[in-house]
UniProtKB/TrEMBL annotation:
Residues 230-665 form the TonB-dependent receptor-like beta-barrel domain. SUPFAM superfamilies: Porins. InterPro entries: Beta-barrel_TonB, Beta-barrel_TonB_sf, Plug_dom, Plug_dom_sf, TonB-dep_rcpt-like, TonB_box_CS. Residues 68-147 form the TonB-dependent receptor plug domain. Transmembrane segments: none annotated. Pfam families: Plug (PF07715), TonB_dep_Rec_b-barrel (PF00593). Keywords: Cell outer membrane, Membrane, Plasmid, Receptor, Signal, TonB box, Transmembrane, Transmembrane beta strand, Transport. Residues 1-25 form the signal peptide. It comes from Blastomonas fulva. The lineage of its organism: Bacteria, Pseudomonadati, Pseudomonadota, Alphaproteobacteria, Sphingomonadales. Belongs to the TonB-dependent receptor family. It is a multi-pass membrane protein. Coiled coil: none annotated. This is TonB-dependent receptor. It comes from the Bacteria.
C-alpha cells in the first residue's frame, strides 16, 4: 500500500485531535541544557547570559538584526549565505546549502512554497522574534530527520512556565531602525503563565525600502512582512501538552536575482503534541503538524521596468506539508536509548500564467507529491570519560507528479514537452539508510571529538519532475535554465570530522577539520553533448526564454573538505576578543572541475569592552578571493573584501536596553561571492552583476523584557 494512502488520513486525524485538546507548548530546551559539544547556539533576543562557547562567537547584539534570519545563522563557524533578497537568504554550511541543510522553525519541518526557494525555512523566522538559533555542529543526529549535512532550527520567543501557581504577565518587545534601507522592525510577545499554564501572543511587522550601497541604490530590494500567532501550554507531573498557530504574511518584496518578485506568501503553521516523562526514566514525545503555503510571484508588481505584455508572468504556487513524529526515550538526558518514527507528506502545485492573456497557463509542477516515512534508533552513553552518540535511521520515500494542463495560447514547443512528460513514468521510490557516530572525551579543559557518518538526500521533486525548462533551481539564482531528470539517484555522503574544544578561564578554542565524499551528487550539467547547438525540443524551448545552453540535473561525484574554528579570548575581565574562521573546498571527482557556489575562506573578528551597564565594540569581517569556480556552470570568480562595524549597548534598567551601531563604517563597495545576480533593469546595479553589500549606515534597537 502506498505511503500516501496509508498515512494521510491518519495525520489529518492526529492534527485535529492535538489541536482540539488543551495543550502545552514544547518551547524547547533552554540553551543551558544543550550539549555545546554537539550544537552551536546563537542567542538573539534573550537576556545576556554568562558567555558560552556556543554563542559568544556570533553574538547578534554586534549587528543590526537583518530581516533575514539566515544572515544571523551564517555567523557560525563554517557558515555563509546565499543572498537572494532581503527575505530569501539560504544558509550555506560547510559548502552545502538548500535542501541539503535541514531547516526547521520551532522544531517543525516543512516544504517551502516557492519553486525557486523564495521562502527557505528561515524566511518564516523574523529576526525580531527569534530567541535563538541552534545549528547541529557538522552532522545532524539521526533523531532530527534526514539531511545530507547539518541542520538548523530557529526558536521564536514564547511564554515560559513559572514557579508560581497563579498566572502572571510576561512581556518581551523589541524595535529597530536601520538607515541603509530605511527599514523598521517591531515585534512583541505578550503572555500569561503559571507553573501549569501558559498562554502567549506573538506579532511582528517589518518593512524596508531599496537599500543603498556606495555608488547607488539596489532597486527592487524593498520588503514587507507580518507575522502573528498564538500558543498555549498545560504542564502536569507527567509532561507537557502544547499547541501553537502562526500566520506569516509576506507582502510585495523584491528578489532581484530572480525573474519574478514576491507578490505574497500567505502561510499558516499549526502544530501540537506532548513531551514528557510517562514513567521514571521513560520519556515520550509526540508531535503533529501542518503547514500550508500560498504564493504568488510576478514581474509586474515591483519589477522595474515592468515586463512587456508578451513576457508578463504571474506564477501561483501551493505547498502543503503534514508531519507526525513519535519518540520513546529510555534513560536520562546523558545516557539513553531512543527509538522513534516520523512521517512527512508534501503536496506542491505550480502554475505559470500571463496576467494579460487568460489563455496562457502552464502547470509546471502539477500535483507533485513526496511522501516519506522513517524510523530511527539513537543511543547515547559513556565509557569512563569517553562519551558517544550512535544512531541509525531508515527512510522510505515515494514521489510522483500529476499531468500538466496547458492553455490554448501556449506554443507547440512546451506542448510537446508536456506530452512527453505525461507519457513518462512520473514516479520514483527510494529507500535510504543513514548512520552517525559522534564521540568525545570529557573530564578536563580539552575535549577531543570525532564524527563518522553516512548521510543521504533524495532528489527533490523539482530536480526529478521539472519537465518545463525554467530558471527554477531552488535558489541558485544564477540565470541558468534547468530541467529535471527522473533517473536521478539519492546522494550519499561519507563524512569524517575531527577536532577539539578547549576552554579555561581566559580562552575558548574549537577547531574542526572535515572531509565529505559524496556519491551521486546532484548538479546542473549541460543538457547534451553539444551545448549551444539547438538540436532538441528542450533546447528549443529554453532558447525561447533566452538560454541556448540549458542544464539538466544529473548525478555526479564530489568531495568537500575544509576546516573552521571559533574562539573567545578574555585577556581582561572587561575585554573579550572573539572570532570565527572558515575554509572549504569543493571539487568534482568525476571530472576536473570545482563544485558550484562554494563560499570563499572568511574571517570574523570582534572586540567588546564592557563595564557596568555599558559595552562598546568593533567587528571586522573579511572574505578572500574565490577563484576556484565551476567551469561546467560558467561560474565567474569573486573578489575579496573586508568591512568594519561599530556597536554599543547601554542598559537603562533590568530588562530595558538600547543598542546602536554603524555598519560598513568605511563605506566599502563589495559584492559577496554567494550573492545573487541582479535581473532588475532600472537599478544602479548592472544587469548580471552580483548584488553589492549594503553601504555605510546606522542602526538602533530598543529591547524590553519583564
Amino acid at each position: 500500500m502506498k505511503i500516501s494512502h496509508l498515512l494521510r488520513t491518519t495525520l489529518l486525524a492526529g492534527c485535529t485531535l492535538s489541536i482540539a485538546c488543551p495543550a502545552l507548548a514544547e518551547h524547547g530546551t533552554t540553551p543551558e541544557s544543550r550539549e555545546d559539544t554537539l550544537t552551536d547556539t546563537i542567542i538573539v533576543t534573550a537576556q545576556r547570559r554568562e558567555t558560552m562557547a556556543s554563542d559568544a562567537v556570533a553574538a547578534p547584539r554586534q549587528i543590526a538584526l537583518p530581516a533575514d534570519a539566515a544572515a544571523i545563522a551564517a555567523r557560525v563557524a563554517g557558515g555563509d549565505i546565499f543572498g537572494n533578497g532581503a527575505l530569501s537568504g539560504q544558509l550555506s554550511y560547510r559548502g552545502l546549502a538548500g535542501e541539503r541543510v535541514l531547516g526547521r522553525i520551532n522544531g517543525q519541518r516543512f516544504a517551502t512554497g516557492g519553486p525557486n526557494a523564495m521562502d527557505p525555512p528561515l524566511h518564516y523566522a523574523p529576526s525580531i522574534l527569534v530567541e535563538r538559533i541552534d545549528v547541529a555542529r557538522g552532522v545532524a543526529p539521526v533523531a532530527e530527520g534526514p539531511s545530507l549535512g547539518g541542520a538548523i532550527n530557529a526558536e521564536l520567543v514564547q511564554a515560559q512556565f513559572t514557579d508560581s501557581a497563579s498566572l502572571s504577565p510576561q512581556m518581551r518587545a523589541a524595535s529597530q531602525y536601520r538607515s541603509v534601507d530605511d527599514s523598521y522592525a517591531v515585534g512583541a510577545l505578550a503572555a500569561l503563565a503559571s507553573n501549569q499554564w501558559r498562554f502567549g501572543l506573538v506579532a511582528s511587522r517589518e518593512q524596508g525600502e531599496d537599500y543603498r550601497f556606495p555608488g547607488g541604490t539596489a532597486v527592487g530590494t524593498s520588503f514587507e512582512r507580518n507575522l502573528y500567532g498564538v500558543h498555549a501550554g498545560f504542564q502536569t507531573g507527567a509532561g507537557e501538552l502544547f499547541v501553537e498557530y502562526r500566520r506569516s504574511e509576506t507582502d510585495p518584496s523584491g528578489n532581484p536575482p530572480f525573474a519574478l518578485d514576491m507578490v505574497y506568501f500567505d502561510t499558516d503553521f499549526v502544530q501540537g503534541g506532548f513531551r514528557g516523562q510517562i514513567a521514571e526514566d521513560v520519556g515520550l514525545t509526540v508531535r503533529f503538524g501542518h503547514v500550508a503555503v500560498r504564493h504568488l510571484m510576478d514581474n509586474q508588481t515591483l519589477r522595474q521596468p515592468r515586463a512587456v505584455p508578451a513576457q508578463a508572468r504571474a506564477s501561483f504556487a501551493e505547498a502543503d506539508t503534514m508531519t507526525a513524529e513519535a519518540a520513546l526515550r529510555l534513560g536520562s538526558s546523558r545516557a539513553y536509548l531512543e527509538v522513534g518514527a516520523d512521517a512527512e507528506l508534501t503536496d506542491r502545485f505550480v502554475t505559470i500564467t500571463n496576467p494579460t492573456n487568460a489563455a496562457f497557463f502552464i502547470d509546471s509542477q502539477p500535483n507533485v507529491r513526496s511522501d516519506r516515512i522513517g524510523a530511527y534508533l539513537q543511543w547515547r552513553g559513556s565509557s569512563g570519560s569517553a562519551q558517544f552518540e550512535l544512531g541509525g535511521r531508515v527512510d522510505r520515500i515515494e514521489q510522483s507528479a500529476g499531468t500538466p494542463q496547458l492553455g490554448a495560447a501556449v506554443p507547440m514547443g512546451p506542448r510537446g514537452l508536456a506530452a512527453a512528460f505525461i507519457a513518462s513514468g512520473r514516479q520514483a521510490d527510494d529507500t535510504t539508510v543513514d548512520a552517525v557516530a559522534r564521540l568525545w572525551i570529557e573530564g578536563g579543559a580539552l575535549v577531543p571529538r570525532l564524527t563518522l557518518a553516512r548521510k543521504t538526500r533524495v532528489p527533490s521533486v523539482l530536480e526529478r519532475f521539472a519537465w518545463l525548462p525554467t530558471e527554477a533551481s531552488f535558489g541558485l539564482a544564477d540565470g541558468n535554465i534547468y530541467v529535471g531528470n527522473q533517473t536521478l539517484k539519492p546522494e550519499v555522503a561519507w563524512i569524517a570530522e575531527a577536532g577539539f574544544d578547549f576552554a579555561n578561564d581566559w580562552l575558548t578554542l574549537r577547531p574542526t577539520v572535515y572531509y565529505r565524499r559524496i556519491e551521486d551528487f546532484i548538479q546542473g550539467t549541460p543538457f547534451d553533448a553539444t551545448p549551444g547547438v539547438i538540436n532538441s525540443p528542450v533546447e528549443m524551448v529554453a532558447s525561447m526564454s533566452g538560454d541556448t545552453t540549458p542544464l539538466m540535473f544529473r548525478n555526479t561525484d564530489a568531495e568537500l573538505y575544509g576546516a573552521d574554528l571559533d574562539f573567545v579570548v578574555r585577556p581582561l575581565a572587561s575585554l573579550e576578543l572573539a572570532g570565527t574562521a572558515s575554509f572549504v573546498r569543493g571539487q568534482r571527482r568525476d571530472i576536473a572541475d570545482d563544485l558550484y557556489r562554494i563560499p570563499p575562506a572568511n574571517l570574523r573578528l570582534s572586540a567588546t569592552w564592557a563595564t557596568g551597564d555599558l559595552s562598546l565594540g568593533a567587528e571586522v569581517f573579511a572574505a578572500a578571493d574565490q577563484n576556484r569556480v565551476s567551469l561546467t556552470n560558467s561560474e565567474l570568480p569573486g573578489d575579496g573584501y573586508a568591512t568594519v562595524g561599530l556597536f554599543a549597548r547601554y542598559t537603562f534598567a533590568e530588562g530595558l536596553a538600547i543598542e546602536a551601531g554603524v555598519e560598513n563604517l568605511l563605506d566599502e563597495r563589495y559584492a559577496p561571492y554567494l550573492a545573487g545576480r541582479s535581473r532588475v533593469g532600472a537599478s544602479d546595479v548592472p544587469v548580471g552583476e552580483r548584488l553589492p553589500g549594503a553601504g555605510r549606515g546606522v542602526w538602533a534597537r530598543l529591547t524590553a523584557q519583564f
